[in-house]
Amino acid sequence: MNLFKAKKEEEYIAEKKEDEEASIVSFSSIPDDVIVNILARISKSHYRSLCLVSKNFNSLLSSPDIYFVRSLIGNTEARFYVRLWVRTPSSGHRHRWFTLGYRQGQLTLVLVRALSSSYSPDRLNSTTVAVHSEIYQIGGSNENKPTRAVRVLDCRSHTWRSAPDMKVARKHAMSYFLDEKIYVIGGCKKTKEKMSWGEVFDLKTQTWKPLPKPPSNDNYVDGAVFGGRLYVFTINNEKYAYDPTEESWVQEAGFEGLEGITGPWCIMGSLIFAEYHRMYVGYDASNGKWLMVHGLDEVHTKRTKNSRTIQLVNHGGKLVIIWDVWHMCPREHKSIWCAVISLEERLTQSGNILLGKVERCNVVLDLVHKSYKLSSCQSVLV
């Protein structure tokens, strides 16, 4: 009886195993486009681990197809890039690219190691601008001479490619992205050349053309893209807006109160965020009023008298603040800090207030030489 029962159990187990094996589809038989469609819906934070599953996974996660699908289904994520001018043992100083990541609950700068050296530029005084999933590095100085060169960093594959050169060599220029066009202003000596003041790069046609100069002889000190138009500000507080459809400038009377802002600032929605008297504030361009950002006690506590705000960046709808702190001991050294803040505008009985929630706030580079310089920060979608 026991032998009969044991035999029946063995037969049952064998049949069950056959059924399970028959029901399991070999993963290798699934078409790549189906796998890509599945992987594109997973957060990129898991990609590093998924690359270890198989060679095919690693290949698919590195291909442009997965980023095309992510964009198609609207599953892109903001990634923060930092370019630092750093000291190296072999070549003195050079630029290094980092991404802002998280490690053990802390913000950290992760060196981008996989950059292709084919077009990797190492130019001082260049301007950078984020365009979808790419960063354009424009102009700069090569052996102390301005250059017309334009290089593009693909933030999906971390490779460089060349783009058409500008018509005029520039360094210390300003660049802005609006309606699939890149606007580059200044950065060259005043000449009679038609394109010396500024030029526009059309992404569709891959061509440069002149940008007309606003009707002012003042020097232009800053600019911004706001409300579908490009704004520039002169040293005497004149404001001009460029309408891409009309291809013309008009003088604006708005933005009253921005004259006192001398440090970095950024635009988030309808507000302009800046530092004012060592406090962070938001400027409402519709009514010209300033709103203090509440809830940033942790940031203010960690900023000392020897600190200086370097960058304010709109990172996927969150405010990123980067500042440095100079040290007396050891001398000629500094630390670089970073804070990521989510924001909420709330209506109260006394009016609108801005509430900030500090998600992360810590040092990302500690006790580095004073020659370390943050050249640019860009937030891109990948």
CATH topology of the largest domain: Neuraminidase
Any idea what the CATH architecture of the largest domain is?
Answer: 6 Propeller
Low-pLDDT parts are none
Give the helix tally. 6
**What's the helical proportion of residues?**
10-25%
Structural domain tally: 3
Q: What is the 3D form? A: globular
How would you characterize the largest beta sheet? 8 strands, mixed
Q: Determine the CATH superfamily of the largest domain.
A: Kelch-type beta propeller
Strands of the largest sheet, in order across it? 18-19-20-21-25-24-23-22
Structural class: mainly beta
* Strand tally: 26
Q: Brief description of this entry?
A:
By secondary structure, the protein is mostly beta strands. It folds into three domains: 2-71, no CATH class; 99-113 and 256-372, no CATH class; 114-252, Kelch-type beta propeller (Neuraminidase), CATH 2.120.10.80. The chain has six helices and 26 strands.
Can you give keywords for this protein?
382 residues; mainly beta; Neuraminidase; 3 domains; eight-stranded mixed β-sheet; four-stranded antiparallel β-sheet; 15% helix; 47% strand; globular; Kelch-typ_b-propeller; Kelch_1; F-box domain-containing protein; F-box/kelch-repeat_ARATH
